[in-house]
């Protein structure tokens, strides 16, 4: 039942209305009875009148009253034409209709809109006297923006429609010319629903082709922020192809300043996404600006997305390594000798021999580092055939090693042996770090009479850890010719979330999968590697240290990379991700130390984040639980360029560690992407409009001319949920209660 009293409109169901009237009648009868029984009729009339008024207001609110006002427009109805001015409109894939160009020339989407707007098809709209025409563009990049900044400006269809609705009170219809490709703001469906409630239809004219232009796009480059001087770094990249044929081409990586260049021949499959990587050797400590590019292929339309630039720095790194084992087996000896001779590695060894006790000599320590300040200096720990108990490690020491990995971003390498001591680690704090499941029934491992090879998986073939050659082309041949192993750990399978780089060439598990023997995983802030055989030393056959030393050197540097991003005297800092894109949130992790080098137990870590424009944001990192002096915080990167990150502790504010975070933006608006007419079809359908193709534009005048005049804009204020209604009722109830007390009624 709907009715109104002046500008207050009520809408209540019949049974609510009937019950409300009955309740009011009962209340009125009770009020009359109370007045007749009262010895003070005047006061009783006032009190019961107040009671009845409160009852009437409550009943009225149950009828959902609304205060409605209408704004009567004084101008003609308005038709707004919205044209897309984003960067994607430069795509040359729009064919002009026959009525505009008999040759049906293919032009850019923006040129197509200009030609259509000036044609006779739209001239008829301007001649109409029943309504006015307003033309507006949306999502145009800043006028003074360069190409990179312009590509970061997206398309917000929802905002364009909502702003048009909110700024006009006599809107008849909206005509939108766009490719439908939105990438900013919320879903435009919400704006279409508002248009439907206002009875404003959307007439959408799609621009552009639904088929992507023939193109090769260098979509993504993931480079490390620094590398070790004289060592190779791996530069992964992704290429997207919309060509209908395979393309044999060459990827070139060159230094902009020194003109040094490396290249790699690749074959990009037709219409697919191609993942690969190229190697680059760091020459010196200076920041180098590198450009990775692919040549323009035959038939390719867009040339601007075939190259990307990034910066990378070189460092002279000193890595601290701890090697722990129980027997001086061959693998232990050659790992120790290889790392001991490496000028970039400082190695300590702890030999826990079951009969002879701890080892002694140059580079040996006599006991496990029990103090956090001694243990935290190690970047990588090699754990051989070592377990818990029997004069080896204790549970507390295992807990310290786990904290070193998870809280201090160090790395740990597990190399089991034939004694099976590592099985005792399974129930220790280190058990969760071991990335494989082993067979407890074969603790001594498995021996073969002939040697077996370690085969790389597809993931291992593309990993820098397994890159033993100077070029990627020779690496598979090197692994094919490496000497094999006779003993391996009783591995059943790898745990979930791990990366299997190498498998047994001959043996399979019960599931039919090859046994994983070279496995890595991330654990907390650190890294873990498991090698399921102890015969990597045999790779020295005929070549001495060439491959054995290179493999373990790469492992040590891979594990210490994140930990040494920004290392100072009192603070060590690292980021995830280390090359963010605008819009991403970066996690800043820090480890703080006191003047003695022990993890900081009190005080705060303060970080100053300075954006490319020079604006500084100061934040205090949150301390993690435990005694490792670990802190973390998050900051959002909102623009491209170099972000300076400076960190210090409140106990030593003069000891500042400085670092630079490079934010390289991926283009939001890209030329050459296909149009999305399905978006416009949905918006038009919801708003009760229509999608008009270029050959049907002559129907536009007739469609708009047949629309009814827009209704006056009505504003509704729901009184039943308004705060003022509650205030009035509570005030009247309070007045009624006070009156009862003054009247002596309890």
UniProtKB/TrEMBL annotation:
State if tRNA processing is listed as a keyword.
no
Tell me which residues make up the VWFA domain: 78-260
**UniProt keyword terms in alphabetical order:** Membrane, Transmembrane, Transmembrane helix
Keyword Manganese listed:
no
Mind telling me which residue stretches traverse the membrane in this protein?
12-33, 45-63, 720-738
Could you tell me which InterPro entries the record lists for this protein? Class_I_gatase-like, VWF_A, vWFA_dom_sf
Q: What is this protein called?
A: VWFA domain-containing protein
Which species is the source of this protein?
Persicirhabdus sediminis
């Amino acid at each position: 039942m709907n009715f109104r009293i002046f500008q207050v409109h009520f809408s209540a169901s019949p049974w609510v209305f009937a019950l409300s009237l009955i309740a009011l009648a009962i209340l009125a009868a009770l009020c009359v009875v109370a007045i007749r029984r009262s010895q003070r009729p005047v006061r009783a009339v006032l009190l019961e009148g107040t009671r009845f008024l409160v009852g009437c207001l409550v009943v009225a609110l149950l009828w959902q009253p609304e205060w409605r006002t209408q704004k009567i427009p004084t101008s003609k109805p308005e038709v707004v034409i919205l044209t897309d001015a984003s960067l994607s409109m430069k795509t040359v894939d729009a064919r002009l209709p026959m009525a505009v160009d008999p040759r049906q020339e293919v032009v850019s989407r923006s040129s197509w809109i200009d030609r259509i707007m000036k044609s006779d098809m739209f001239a008829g709209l301007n001649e109409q006297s029943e309504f006015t025409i307003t033309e507006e563009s949306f999502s145009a990049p800043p006028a003074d923006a360069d190409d990179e900044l312009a590509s970061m400006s997206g398309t917000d269809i929802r905002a364009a429609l909502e702003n048009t609705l909110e700024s006009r009170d006599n809107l008849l219809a909206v005509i939108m010319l766009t490719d439908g490709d939105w990438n900013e703001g919320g879903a435009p469906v919400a704006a279409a629903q508002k248009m439907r409630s206002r009875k404003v239809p959307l007439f959408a004219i799609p621009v552009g082709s639904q088929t992507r232009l023939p193109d090769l796009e260098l979509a993504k480059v993931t480079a490390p922020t620094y590398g070790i001087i004289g060592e190779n770094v791996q530069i992964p990249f992704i290429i997207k192809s919309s060509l209908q044929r395979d393309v044999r081409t060459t990827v070139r990586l060159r230094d902009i300043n020194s003109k040094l260049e490396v290249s790699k021949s690749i074959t990009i499959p037709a219409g697919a996404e191609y993942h690969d990587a190229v190697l680059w050797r760091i020459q010196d400590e200076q920041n180098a600006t590198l450009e990775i590019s692919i040549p323009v292929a035959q038939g390719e339309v867009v040339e601007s997305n075939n190259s990307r630039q990034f910066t990378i720095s070189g460092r002279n790194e000193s890595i601290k390594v701890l090697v722990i084992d129980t027997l001086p087996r061959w693998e232990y000896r050659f790992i120790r000798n290889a790392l001991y001779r490496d000028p970039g590695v400082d190695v300590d060894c702890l030999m826990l021999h079951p009969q002879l006790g701890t080892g002694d000599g140059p580079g040996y320590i006599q006991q496990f580092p029990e103090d956090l300040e001694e243990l935290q200096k190690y970047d990588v720990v090699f754990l051989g055939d070592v377990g818990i108990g029997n004069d080896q490690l204790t549970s507390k020491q295992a807990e310290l090693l786990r904290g070193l990995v998870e809280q201090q971003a160090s790395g740990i390498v597990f190399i089991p042996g034939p004694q099976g001591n590592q099985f005792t680690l399974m129930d220790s704090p280190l058990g969760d770090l071991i990335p494989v499941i082993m067979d407890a029934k074969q603790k001594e491992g498995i021996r073969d009479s002939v040697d077996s090879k370690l085969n790389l998986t597809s993931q291992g073939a593309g990993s820098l850890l397994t890159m033993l050659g100077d070029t990627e082309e020779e690496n598979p041949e090197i692994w094919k010719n490496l000497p094999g192993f006779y003993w391996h750990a009783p591995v059943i399978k790898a745990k979930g979330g791990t990366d299997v780089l190498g498998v047994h060439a001959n043996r399979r598990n019960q599931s039919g999968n090859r046994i994983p023997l070279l496995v890595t995983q991330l654990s907390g802030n650190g890294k873990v590697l498991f090698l399921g055989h102890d015969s990597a030393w045999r790779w020295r056959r005929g070549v001495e240290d060439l491959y054995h030393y290179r493999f373990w050197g790469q492992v040590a540097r891979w594990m210490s990379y994140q930990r040494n991003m920004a290392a100072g005297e009192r603070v060590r800092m690292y980021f995830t991700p280390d090359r963010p894109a605008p819009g991403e949130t970066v996690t800043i992790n820090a480890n703080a130390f006191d003047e003695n080098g022990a993890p900081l137990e009190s005080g705060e870590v303060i970080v100053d984040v300075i954006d490319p424009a020079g604006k500084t944001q100061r934040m205090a990192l949150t301390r993690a639980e435990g005694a490792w002096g670990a802190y973390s915080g998050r900051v959002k990167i909102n623009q491209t360029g170099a972000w300076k990150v400076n960190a210090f502790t409140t106990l030593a504010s003069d000891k500042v560690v400085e670092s630079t975070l490079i934010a390289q933006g991926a283009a939001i608006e890209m030329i050459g992407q296909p149009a999305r007419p399905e978006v416009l079809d949905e918006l038009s359908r919801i708003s009760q409009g229509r999608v008009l193709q270029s050959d049907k534009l002559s129907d536009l005048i007739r469609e708009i001319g047949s629309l009814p005049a827009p209704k006056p804009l009505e504003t509704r204020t729901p009184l039943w949920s308004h705060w003022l209604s509650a205030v009035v009722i509570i005030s009247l109830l309070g007045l009624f209660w006070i009156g009862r007390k003054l009247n002596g009624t309890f």
